[in-house]
Write a structure and sequence with these properties.
The protein is of the alpha+beta class and 607 residues long. It folds into four domains: 12-143, no CATH class; 154-383, no CATH class; 398-468, no CATH class; 490-596, no CATH class. The chain has helices spanning 12-33, 183-187, 194-204, 209-217, 236-241, 252-263, 268-280, 285-291, 293-297, 307-321, 336-350, 383-397, 404-428, 438-450, 500-506, 511-517, 529-542, 551-559, 572-594, 596-606, and strands at residues 51-55, 61-67, 74-75, 78-79, 84-92, 98-99, 110-111, 121-126, 130-132, 147-148, 206-207, 265-266, 302-303, 324-325, 363-368, 374-378. The protein has a five-stranded antiparallel sheet with strand order 8-5-2-1-9, with no helix packed on it. A three-stranded antiparallel sheet has the order 10-15-16, with no helix packed on it. A two-stranded antiparallel sheet has the order 3-4. Strand 15 (363-368) and strand 16 (374-378) form a beta hairpin. Helix 6 (252-263) runs antiparallel to helix 10 (307-321), helix 10 packs antiparallel against helix 11 and helix 18 (551-559) packs across helix 19 (572-594). The longest helix has 25 residues, at 404-428. The chain starts with 11 loop residues before the first helix and ends with a helix.
């Protein structure tokens, strides 16, 4: 029997089915739009004017255009062979893609963007990099990320995958919570009585009248902003840690938990799913929060709401706890310094600098437990993530007496492996399982591209595909530096550029550092006895009414004395920092000189 859709009385099951039908169409459309449409291979028989896309070796769409309307025998002094054709580019998607040396008269690879002085433009390309394109379809935006936002439906969650954690097994962050799939074992963990103790502490708390009066008017000047808020946000952990509370205050723990719960709100849909699972085991959601907070937080997403919602919540917590007195000392929770910090926190909240940016997903699905609950990994900035890489670097180095050459090499090796492992996991949702010699992988990719016409299929992990190796040699190098940065504006400080012969002839020290910095002599802090003597002499000569010298001019004069053996180049910052140390030593020297005669007299009496 058909359904009368014009009726006002339609069964809920029919409405749900209709909604799912529409939703399925949207999902199919989104999947097709995001699916790489390689099109048909382009050959010498492909008609002129056919819309095409230029693809890189790893399948990324580099540019769009058409087969050129004419086919000359030569294009810019390069032969147009039977494996090549002239194309007209109308749109570039990856400006850093390098056009092969064999296709250019200069025989040097150049970025495709260097030819785009105006669009469209013609260029020569090999057939095996071209695919036909349907101009009616938008260009694919392929995303291999399994990122999920806090507002997405559960049906949008990706398949369960394992993403390696940056946490080292040896790390001990004081978290005694156990994350186990066995709910019974989780409930057997020592019962956390913090919340009960907090409730009792609040019941007995007394308010400081003077502090409460200050807090009642402290927020009157704040008004909700109407302009677009910044996308550069404050880290939530540092925001909460900004307000320093005495460790002995009885309400310290209560306030910390209340502020945390005011900032982080549990996603309602995730909470409902977890509640349903816990109910089957006879466990209440709030009980599990008390007994094993870590177990819950691995299975729910938390959001920091917009300022309009977050501001009154945080304000209420600060107003409530600020004036409360400690039972032992009878002092309020917030002293004068804490009150000032709390106002800064509230200002950041009301400006929208703490709230999550709309549309930016902060959680990755890392798999499911035995009860079917999705387990998440949060990528929101925290103190653990901030210190994780630094601690890993310390363990990587071992001893701290490595030379500059070894230090730079170790750091580059560490960053390479870190980027491959963490980057692959974040982008594809799968762990990186291969060696770390990317130069060999790039060479294999290049060889596979050269003989692609002779292969039935490319080697595993290479060629066109969402998980194929991206040959970095096919793209222009980044202008970013890692490690020792070159010194800019050498002329400004009267520094001379690096010359190889100078270090050989003059036997200068720290030549490797000077080469990386691009200077004739290495740039170092004040570190030798000769430099300390020169600094003292120049400070006395430059001193004017006790004021600090002009450090830029000081650096210029210093550069004239640098020889690369006992005196090295200095930046103004080096000189300014050492000036404080010099003042302390100078004061100590003057003090000793003042009592020199008295010291000699006392020494003679003691003999």
């Amino acid at each position: 029997m058909g359904v009368d859709w014009s009726s006002n009385d339609i069964a809920e099951s029919h409405l749900q089915a209709a909604g799912l039908d529409a939703f399925a169409c949207l999902v199919i459309d989104a999947t097709l739009c995001n699916h790489s449409r390689g099109g048909d291979a382009v050959t010498i028989a492909t008609p002129h004017g056919t819309p095409i896309s230029l693809h890189s070796c790893d399948g990324q769409v580099v540019a769009d255009g058409i087969i050129a309307l004419d086919r000359p025998k030569q294009f810019k002094s390069v032969n147009v062979t039977i494996t090549r054709t002239v194309i007209t580019i109308s749109k570039i998607h990856i400006p850093s893609y390098l056009v092969g040396a064999s296709l250019l008269a200069s025989k040097t690879p150049e970025p495709i963007s260097s030819f785009a002085t105006s669009l469209p433009f013609n260029m020569l390309e090999s057939f095996h990099h071209l695919r036909t394109r349907n101009p009616a379809l938008t260009n694919p935006i392929v995303s291999n990320s399994d990122v999920v936002g806090s507002g997405e439906l559960e049906s949008n969650l990706p398949p369960p995958v394992f993403i390696p954690s940056e946490r080292d097994p040896s790390d001990n962050d004081g978290d005694t919570m156990v994350d186990s799939d066995n709910l019974v074992s989780c409930m057997k963990e020592p019962y956390n009585m913090v919340l009960e103790v907090e409730d009792q502490a609040l019941d007995r708390a007394v308010t400081d009248p003077d502090s409460q009066e200050r807090w009642s008017s402290a927020f009157e000047w704040l008004r909700m902003p109407t302009s677009v808020r910044s996308r550069v946000l404050a880290d939530p952990w540092h925001i909460m840690n900004l307000i320093k509370i005495p460790a002995t205050h009885g309400l310290r723990s209560v306030f910390s938990h209340a502020l945390r719960d005011a900032i982080f709100l549990i996603d309602a849909s995730d909470r409902k799913v977890v509640e349903d699972v816990l109910a089957t085991h006879g466990i209440a959601f709030d009980d599990m929060l008390r007994r094993n907070l870590g177990w819950v937080l691995h299975r729910v997403r938390r959001i920091i709401p917009p300022a309009e919602v977050l501001y009154p919540q945080v304000k209420g917590v600060l107003e409530m706890f600020g004036p409360l007195l400690n039972a032992a000392t009878q002092k309020p929770l917030f002293n004068a310094a804490a009150e000032g910090k709390a106002l800064h926190v509230l200002e950041a909240v009301h400006c929208g600098w703490v709230s999550d940016v709309p549309g930016v997903a902060l959680y990755y699905a890392t798999g499911k437990d035995k009860d079917g609950l999705v387990k998440y990994r949060c990528v929101r900035g925290t103190n653990k993530n901030e210190g994780g890489f630094h601690q890993k670097a310390i363990r990587w180095f071992g001893p701290f007496q490595a030379s500059i050459e070894l230090t730079v090499s170790i750091m580059r090796d560490m960053v390479l492996k870190h980027n491959l492992m963490v980057g692959t996991a974040n982008q594809t949702g799968k762990p990186y399982r291969s060696h770390f010699d990317i130069w060999i992988k790039n060479k294999i990719s290049a060889l596979g591209d050269e003989v692609c016409g002779l292969l039935v299929s490319p080697p595993a992990g290479y060629g066109v595909g969402s998980n194929s190796w991206v040959n970095g040699n096919n793209y222009a190098r980044s202008e970013e530096y890692f490690g020792i940065l070159p010194v800019m504006e050498l002329d400004w400080y009267e520094m001379v550029p690096y010359v190889v012969e100078h270090s050989t002839d003059q036997k200068t020290r720290h030549d490797h550092l000077a080469r990386l910095q691009g200077t004739l002599v290495a740039v170092l802090p004040v570190c030798t006895e000769t430099e300390r003597s020169l600094f003292s002499l120049m400070c006395h000569a430059q001193a004017v009414d006790g004021k600090e010298p002009d450090w830029v001019e000081f650096a210029r004069l210093w550069s004239r004395h640098a020889d690369g053996r006992t005196i090295f180049y200095k930046l103004p910052e080096h000189l300014s920092v050492y000036y404080k140390t010099w003042l302390e030593r100078h004061n100590e020297s003057n003090s000793v000189s003042d009592i020199a005669q008295d010291f000699k007299h006392i020494k003679s009496l003691l003999q």
